[in-house]
RNA sequence: GGGCCCGUAGCUCAGUUGGAUAGAGCAACGGAUUUCUAAUCCGUAGGUCGGAGGUUCGAUUCCUCUCGGGCCCGCCA
């Protein structure tokens, strides 16, 4: 909002200076308040390209900015050392922007850069052979928040869960269930978890259905709902697996060896070729996955995003290679790799073994610490980093726990607004109020943070980084609590408007994270 | 042996795609409550950004090497 104002001023100044070349520069919030509100590296970035001295270029740009009327909204423009240009925003511009937050309300922070493009986001896609584990929980939350982010950025998003409802592991599962019912030992390579005894159903289809419904129930506890569950069997039924293989054959990307059909992935950078159709005539998981992506592409999405666990990272290269070999636009396929979660109880890691079936299930975690805390902690770190998740910390209803820090901020705001309402001051001025009295540092700081919200959403969406939103939320809560200490709100209409704008922003933060925004705590 | 990811304060993590004196929270220490929710706030202390080179005006960020940790390398899915 403020940045785009500066950007257009800069563009005007550039053309006034007769600079036609496209320069790659940035406008960023200043790292320290002595450097103003925003800074640009334009002169440094442009100096080399224009073979000019950066300081001189900065001086010229600053001059053109002033001539171009920048001083209506900028109180000071300053050039510093290597060639940074620092901007000090006039309070009036900031103050005028706040009522817009209240007008936009639910829409505040939402943008249109996605232009309605269709995206298919596939995530979780756990095998229907057992309960979801905490790793699935992490992908589920990350996926759900990314879907919300992309929608907020103006994309049309559909979410999908791929169900491997046929194949070897289904046979193993069925054998394991039958063995358990007959009180016989778990078959070799079977499933030995305690849950096997609980599985209901009298056919393969029934037990898959049962386990899937348990998985869905767990996801629902987290508030994660999918637009579609896509069964692998459908690909076979529709002949798409054959279709995928024959596409590769047609493009001369296969060889036959030892009775099997192989994808020549080696010539596309893979360490070895991969089997598509086994010697016994059955297709592999890989072939079905190709068919699945063929199907996705045929549905006309602009972009396909998959979230996979790190245990599948090795398949990225070969899937992309195969997609390309089928003649499909591999550059539209994006795969996010999520690292695993290690559970802790205090300082003690909780050991888990799939083999012995000693697992803490996702459902147990959610039951123990609640959906809000689970969602927050799974959203709060870069999915590309391993996550140490401390159940004791997540359970604490105290300041140690950032979830409550944000929620408390919201509740505190609501309490103020309730009080104002009951005292007849009105909880909101619907953006009509004159905010020129808001000039104190704590007020300025809060306003600046509020106005940074749309950009945070946009960046989080582009980067597919939900943790950007939790970071923003923590920062906003900090400046709000700071403001609260410094500034008495009741009896001050301008501050009431600011508080209402804070309420909307904080609520939208929590909404994007899928976390409840309590009105009292 | 090969591939991908991670390594930042005692702990858990950010770091705006290469910018200015590297930031939060917790833990530690010291303060604040007749005032709109103290689930809060203020202050102090805490760092060779795993290590070594390189690229350039400038590197936590990019490249090479190296050390440590995680995950993977099936005609399983």
UniProtKB/TrEMBL annotation:
Subcellular location, record wording: Cytoplasm
What does it catalyze?
A: tRNA(Arg) + L-arginine + ATP = L-arginyl-tRNA(Arg) + AMP + diphosphate
**Would you say which domain of life the source belongs to?**
Bacteria
GO terms for biological process? Answer: arginyl-tRNA aminoacylation
From the record, give the transmembrane residue ranges: none
One of its Pfam families is: tRNA-synt_1d
So what family is this one in? Belongs to the class-I aminoacyl-tRNA synthetase family.
Q: Which protein is depicted? A: Arginine--tRNA ligase
Q: Which organism is it from?
A: candidate division WOR-1 bacterium RIFCSPHIGHO2_01_FULL_53_15
